[in-house]
Amino acid sequence: MKITVVKPGDLGPGEAETWRTLLRSGSPLVNPFLCPEFTMAVGRLRADVRVAVIEDGGRIAGFFPFERHRFGIGKPVGSGLTDAQGAILAPGVRLDVPWLLKSCGLSVWEFDHLVADQFPAYHSSRHPSPIIDLRGGLEGYLTEMQKNSGKTYKSTAYKERKLGREVGEVRHDYAVTDPEALRTLLGWKSGQYRRTGRSDRFARPWITRLVEDLLQVNTPASPGCSIWCTPATGPSPDISACAVTPSWRAGSRPTTSPSPATPLGSSSTSPW
């Protein structure tokens, strides 16, 4: 087995397509944060992003995207923004973690949302990761919501009807790519962060630029889309809902937290 570390922009179309094929080959990996488009988008904005191309028998067997920081500290691509982290591997491929990190020039790799079936020796806990299952279409999703979350479904439907009566017909717009609409959303979100005393992620220009870039990606593995729910009178922060969200299938998929026994930090996969 061989590992070659490259910048995301050095990957060719064939390698990107192989990445997508591997992504589809294992259902726990089907997540927009693990797709090549996300890594490439972050790589255009950050100089510390790398991809380990894993070959076995002369064929690509996987990819391991990561950020390489000072002192050999590794993190997932887009660390702090992602809810799925790990390597994209062909079925049956198992990696020796010390060899992987050494090949990537890392002394440690920190994670907090690792795909649950990877690197099990370094897990300390396992948690469900909420996602929306759209495999059965909208009707299938609503049926499952009524069955499993009846109270939430009824209260949401009531609020929608009430909004329609008091303000105007509610409109749902899928895959909105208007940059002005996105800027409106980010402004609302920054205001919410400030009101609640939380750090404003969108005060960091690279994160704002990343969201803007991802909004324009239109491939079968698109990292996300913008969904607006607004009354006919138009959007306002008090009566509108919008999300720039991964547009993938789901349910409740487990992710893992790191073992506190690993040295060099309690949130790490470490070979030492």
Structural summary, described in words:
It is a single chain. Helix content is 31%, strand content 24%. The protein has helices spanning 13-25, 36-43, 97-103, 137-148, 150-166, 179-195, 205-215, and strands spanning 2-6, 49-56, 59-68, 73-75, 88-89, 108-110, 114-115, 123-130, 170-173, 225-231, 241-245, 252-258, 268-269. The strands form three sheets. Strands 1, 2, 3, 4, 5, 6 and 13 form a seven-stranded mixed sheet that branches. A three-stranded antiparallel sheet has the order 7-12-8, with no helix packed on it. A three-stranded antiparallel sheet has the order 9-10-11. The chain is globular, with a radius of gyration of 20 Å. The chain has 272 residues and is α+β, with helices and mostly antiparallel strands. It is built from seven helices and 13 strands. The two termini are 21 Å apart.
Distance between the termini: 21 Å
What do the pLDDT scores average to? 81
Task: Tally the beta strands.
Answer: 13
What percent of the residues sit in helical stretches (DSSP H or I)? 25-40%
Over the alpha carbons, how many angstroms does the gyration radius reach? 20 Å
The rough form would be described as globular
How much β-strand is present in the residues? 15-25%
Order of helices and strands: EHHEEEEHEEEHHEHHEEEE
> Main β-sheet, in a few words?
7 strands, mixed
Low-confidence stretches: 238-253, 259-272
What quaternary form is this? single chain
Secondary-structure content class: alpha+beta
Q: Count of DSSP helices?
A: 7
